[in-house]
Amino acid sequence: MNYNSILGQPVLVGSLKRAVKEDMVANGYIFCGPKGSGKKLTAAVFAKALNCRSEEDDKPCGNCTSCRKFDSNNHPNIEIIKPTGASIKIKQIREIVAKVAKRPFESGFKVVILDEAEKMTQDAQDAFLKTLEEPPANTIFILLVQNQYSLLPTVVSRCQTFFMRKITTQQIENYLLEHYKYDKEQISFAAISANGIIGRAIEMLSNKELQESRRLYVSLISKISNNSYTESSAAAGELVDSREAAERLLDFMLSWYRDILISKQDCEKHVFVNSDNADIIMRQGEKLDENKLNRIIDVIKRTISYINHKAPKTV
């Protein structure tokens, strides 16, 4: 595990590498992005690099004793804090502050990773803020959040904030093809439906519930195609119970109607994102002309843009 494991984050990776190389490491970092965007992986690689004992600039080396301990989940300088129940409580913050106040067990940095840091209670954030104001020597705090606005502004102001960027569909597809043994059609669909979030694509391949959702998406669009609007509305209401669910449905619809548009161009069926449903796509394409398809696609795009504009930005 090294920086090459982090896909599509060149600015973030470059900044972290320079911080280690030039010995300009901050006491606090915030990695902000949706679930599955690579925050935990990035924090882990950075923590590993901070404690790497190699004399070379390219850290982490993966070969020194520190890197080997890290890879075996046996490094004494790494601490991970997670919510207990629904929140990270003040007791947890006090305990970790007392622990890191001691000297690191090994040379390097004591790294504290706060997973889902936005779930710190108000008291916990107040206690954490005091620690950031007078941080223990050689201690780095990394906060992983989906929305930085859930943190106190004074906490954010004392940290360097980095946003996880969405990566391209092609990057996701190439990664999945290299690391997972699924059908090309399944991988292509997962890649385009992930909306730039690699973890979402991986979950889609392995999660049976998400695969069932895709079957229901096809059923919904078939109802729309048959002008069964009452049934369509009811089905959509059952499928969409959150912003994330709405995004998944809209992303699927966008890929579906684009496939229908492609079908008008006498292309081979294997070029469809939803090639496993090529016959249904071809039949629906007989009912829609290109102008109507372009209008449908435009409406879906504007709806996605509206949702992203109204929701708090996390990426």
Strand content: 5-15%
Globally, the shape reads elongated
Order of helices and strands: HEHHEHEHEHEHHHHHHHH
Overall number of strands: 5
The number of helical runs is: 14
The CATH topology name of the largest domain reads Rossmann fold
* Largest sheet descriptor: 5 strands, parallel
Q: Which CATH C-level class of the largest domain is it?
A: Alpha Beta
> Radius of gyration, rounded?
23 Å
Any idea how many domains?
2
Fraction of residues in helix:
40-55%
* Structural class based on helices, strands and sheet pairing: alpha/beta
CATH superfamily of the largest domain: P-loop containing nucleotide triphosphate hydrolases
| Strand order, largest beta sheet | 2-3-4-1-5
The chain-level mean pLDDT equals 84
Point out poorly predicted stretches: none
CATH architecture of the largest domain: 3-Layer(aba) Sandwich
How far is it from the N-terminal to the C-terminal residue, by CA?
24 Å
Tags for this entry?
about 325 residues, alpha/beta, Zinc Finger, Delta Prime, domain 3, 2 domains
Descriptive report:
The protein has two domains: 3-163, P-loop containing nucleotide triphosphate hydrolases (Rossmann fold, 3-Layer(aba) Sandwich), CATH 3.40.50.300; 207-310, Zinc Finger, Delta Prime, domain 3 (Up-down Bundle). It starts with 9 loop residues before the first helix and ends in a 5-residue tail after the last helix. The chain has a five-stranded parallel β-sheet with strand order 2-3-4-1-5, with helices on both faces. It has helices at residues 10-21, 39-51, 65-71, 90-100, 122-133, 153-157, 169-179, 184-193, 198-206, 208-225, 229-239, 243-263, 278-285, 290-310, and strands at residues 28-32, 78-81, 110-114, 139-145, 160-163. 54% of the residues lie in helices and 8% in strands. It has 315 residues and is an alpha/beta fold. The relative contact order is 0.11. The protein is elongated, with a radius of gyration of 23 Å. The protein contains 14 helices and five strands. The model has no long low-confidence stretch (mean pLDDT 84).
